[in-house]
Amino acid sequence: QVQLVESGGGLVQPGGSLRLSCVVSGFTLDRYDIGWFRQAPGKEREGVSCIRGSDGTTHYPDSVKGRFTVSRDIAKNTVYLQMNNLKPEDTAVYYCGTDAAYGSSCFFFRASGMDYWGKGTPVTVSS
Question: Is residue 3 within a helix (H) or strand (E), and if so which, with residue range?
Fold first, then answer.
């Protein structure tokens, strides 16, 4: 059965870095797209990256472009999100999800279209 497990969140100072991991099971990473989303209190779930299963193409919104980098290790069934130059507005619970229905929800950062989610890992950027 499809499962996703995030890790790597924590407390970091502004300007610092974190590397999140998403370990998936039940499928290989070259089959489904993986999206990273975040949700801050009182806010809707917001996409911050997408990596396509078919070819590894990546997409980012303007809010994180140049600071966040998504990558994958297919052999380890793990997707990574490297977050640099973190800002207080990056504070949120970060989730990885997969669009297992062969849609475009990941590409367009449509949280409602994602089929499976991890439990999330919290990231707090102080000040």
Answer: strand 3-7
Strand, coil or helix: what is 100?
coil
- Exposure string over 105-122, b if 16+ CB within 10 A, otherwise e: bbbebbbebbebbbebbe
Report the C-alpha gap between 10 and 93 in whole angstroms: 10
Residue 59's contacts (CB-CB under 8 Å, 6 or more residues apart) are 49, 50, 51, 106, 107
Residue of 112, 119, 96, 121 whose CA lies nearest to 32: 96
- pLDDT given at position 104: 85
Neighbours of 100 (CB within 10 A): 17
Q: Mention every residue, 6+ apart, whose C-beta is less than 8 A from residue 95.
A: 6, 36, 37, 38, 39, 45, 117, 118, 119, 120, 121
Mean pLDDT of the chain: 96
Mean per-residue pLDDT, 24-39? 96
* Closest of 47, 62, 63, 55 to residue 105, by C-alpha: 47
